[in-house]
Design brief:
Blueprint lengths: L2 E3 L6 E3 L1 E4 L6 H31 L6 H18 L2 H9 L3 E4 H34 L4 H4 L2 H27 L8 E2 L6 H7 L5 H34 L4 H30 L3 H29 L2 H26 L1
Parallel strand pairs: 3-5
Antiparallel strand pairs: 1-2, 3-4
Helix pairs in contact: 1-2, 1-3, 1-10, 2-4, 2-10, 4-6, 4-8, 4-9, 6-8, 8-9, 9-10
């Protein structure tokens, strides 16, 4: 692990970090490796299935499913930048990463997290228009408008994170270069810096407001209006049908924002040492796996599209088999 002396003081500048990951016996680490590998494969397959179904099934060519597919793209992007390196760390009982690689990992991770915050907000807006203003839904949520909203989510996420990345890249890191985490997150980087991080803290505060607080307020307001509208529906069947279109999104939002608030908005000293690592597992490893499961298991349209796709494959196989037999 290389170091570089700083002239004029007794501090030592760190040029790389050592990620501890999950420490334990070799058998435990092998078990965790196999477990997280299965989770990662399930995440990729599940989200690719959602993307494929939405792109190939005509009955899923609606704004809601378009945003679900965008969420799946984001989940694949997020998992791919975290889990493979975590698996490498588990096999080697830790791993060295340069500052440049660490900052890049944090950038891609943060961009994906910020984009997911905005995508979930846009999805709540979509449900708000569908339930509270159904007569104008098709004229408002056009394909072009949905594409613009999706691109905007990524652009805003990229833009606000790049400001933090510029500041972090200027920091000097001194002393112990061991990070008790499985990826380069903001809290350990902030704690290991020997530079003045006042500006960084201001940027983090701004980032929390833009990417977490404001989206949360918009989602809450959207669902308050949705609930009021649903309660006004005279028939019980109509109320259940309207609420069923929102329940999956509410579950995903609850899981995602609960962990985000726990780690970044209201962290405690205990969390920064141990619990934050577990919470980080939730939104970097398990949430990308859970999202397609929630949307597929609780969604009749996706279940129907999956059955139709399987039936098409069976029909093609039958025709191919008949052709070979001839």
């Amino acid at each position: 692990m290389s170091m570089l002396n700083i002239q004029g003081n007794n501090l030592t500048a760190t040029t790389d970090f050592f990620l501890l990951g999950f420490q334990g016996s070799q058998s435990l680490r092998i078990f965790l490796f196999c477990f997280f590998l299965v989770v990662y494969c399930g995440t990729i397959c599940g989200n690719l299935l959602i993307i494929t179904l939405v792109s190939t099934s005509r009955n899923l060519h609606t704004p809601m499913y378009f945003f679900i597919s965008q969420l799946s793209v984001n989940d694949i992007f997020l998992s791919t930048h975290i889990v493979p390196n975590m698996l490498h760390i588990l096999l080697n009982n830790g791993g060295t990463i340069t500052i440049a690689e660490c900052v890049c990992q944090f950038f891609f991770f943060s961009t994906a997290e910020a984009a997911e915050c905005f995508l979930l907000t846009v999805m709540s807006y979509d449900r708000y228009v569908a339930i509270c203003d159904p007569l104008r839904y098709t004229s408002i949520m056009t394909a072009e408008y949905c594409a613009k909203l999706s691109v905007t989510c990524w652009l805003i996420g990229f833009s606000i994170i790049i400001i933090d990345i510029f500041t972090i890249s200027k920091l000097k890191f001194c002393g112990p270069n061991i990070i008790d985490h499985f990826f380069c997150d903001l809290l350990p980087l902030q704690g290991m810096s020997c530079s003045n991080i006042f500006i960084l803290r201001l940027e983090i505060f701004f980032l929390s407001i833009v990417s977490i607080i404001i989206p949360t307020i918009i989602i809450i307001l959207s669902y308050l209006n949705i609930i009021v509208t649903i309660l006004r529906i005279p028939s019980r069947t109509g109320r259940q049908k309207a609420f069923s279109t929102c329940s999956s999104h509410l579950i995903v939002v609850s899981i995602f924002y609960w962990t985000m608030f726990g780690v970044y908005v209201f962290p405690t000293k205990v969390e920064t040492l141990s619990v934050s690592k577990i919470l980080s597992l939730v939104y970097t490893v398990f949430t990308p796996l859970i999202n397609p499961m929630i949307y597929s298991l609780r969604n009749k349209d996706i279940q129907k599209a999956l059955k139709n796709t399987i039936q098409k494959f069976k029909t093609v196989e039958t025709r191919l088999g008949a052709g070979h037999s001839v």
